[in-house]
Amino acid sequence: MRKRLHDATSSSSAGELPPEKRIRRTKTICSCNSPRPPFLSAHSTFSWFDEDIWTEIAKFLDGKSLIMLATTNKWFRRAIMDDGIWKFVSLRDLQVPSPQRVAFKWSKLYTSAFDGSHSYKFRQQEKHIDWMRIGAFYFDSSVALLTERLNFPGELRKEESMEKMLRSHGCCFLDNIKPGIWIADLQLVRCPVCDLNTCDGTMQTLDARHIELFLCEDYQNGSWEYELVGSHDIKKRADGAAGAIFDVKHLENSSTSAVFDYKSWIGKHNDWQPKAMIAFHAVAVNTNLQDNEGLHVKYQAMRAGTNGEVVSMRISQQLL
To answer: Among candidates 170, 153, 154, which has minimal Cα distance to 295?
Structure first.
């Protein structure tokens, strides 16, 4: 009895159980595992050469920054020089709607609009004094109204002769305008560029051109020239030298009405700095004048070949 008790006590103190009562572990205990998020997977790491990402980034860059990025390497050149990017940037910076079609790549159109070029850089450079970029506007229709007056013209009849319209209303119509985006500049040139040999002063010119003009070969080689549309004299004191170009289709639009509200933008009567106003479908300029004896006003147009579309327009004014 004592031996059995001793044996039982020894087994209990050793912490051992009989073989039949021991727990058998079939597998080891492990911690709970959660599914791995897909965005942490190795295959989804960020790629610096994701074209969609750089297309979006490019929309926030100016033209100079885009060119710098395109010169980084061949991949960036291919991605950044995509015409869709340059179309977006061009319309954004010019603040005009998209034309139905264009004859040149948008990268070239952007360059011709923002590289500092103007019409007197191509011809008559010796006559040029200074210039100012006004902005861009848009022609929907093929008819333009050119005027030297900034008040609303009221009732106008296209069947009136050019001379009568200039004399009575100080304006004229111009047909067959090339639709699309137009760029407007204010030019200051020497008067000998005009027909009055008695004047040795300066001449102000509102100069508007289609955005594609400078890229056309016939313009570059001098085949297209400006033609005189009409001219007349204002033989009395003029308060200012003004000029405006309107798309006739949008003459009564609310955006165009801002141009006719000229007192809000031409400056005070003793402010001699040129002022300009741009709208979606119109452009206007005005320079207040000191005492004078009147103005000689000249209207010019450039066509894309004989009987072609009008691709450039000018309204020039000089003191008598």
So the answer is: 170
Helix ranges (DSSP H) in 223-284 = 254-260
Q: Phi and psi of 291, rounded to 5°?
A: -55, 135
List of the chain residues with pLDDT < 70:
1-49, 157-159, 192-200
**What pLDDT digit, counting tens, does each position of 255-277 carry?**
899 999 999 999 898 899 999 99
| Dihedral over Cα of 160, 163, 164, 167: its sign | positive
End-to-end CA distance of the chain: 146
**pLDDT (0 to 100) of residue 165:** 81
Query: pLDDT per residue over 2-46, tens digit each?
Result: 444 344 444 444 444 454 444 444 444 444 454 555 544 444 554
Any bridge partners for residue 204, and if so which?
A: 188, 317
CB 250 within 8 A of CB 256: yes
Q: Which residue pairs from 222-228 have beta carbons closer than 8 angstroms and sit at least 24 positions apart in sequence?
A: 222/123, 223/305, 224/302, 224/303, 224/304, 224/305, 224/311, 225/302, 226/300, 226/301, 226/302, 226/312, 226/314, 227/300, 227/301, 227/302, 227/303, 228/298, 228/299, 228/300
Element (H, E) at 64: helix 63-70
Is the pTM higher than 0.90? The answer reads: no
**Would you state the structure tokens that stand for residue 24, as one six-digit string?**
């058998």
Q: Which of 277, 275, 276, 282 is nearest to 256 (CA)?
A: 282
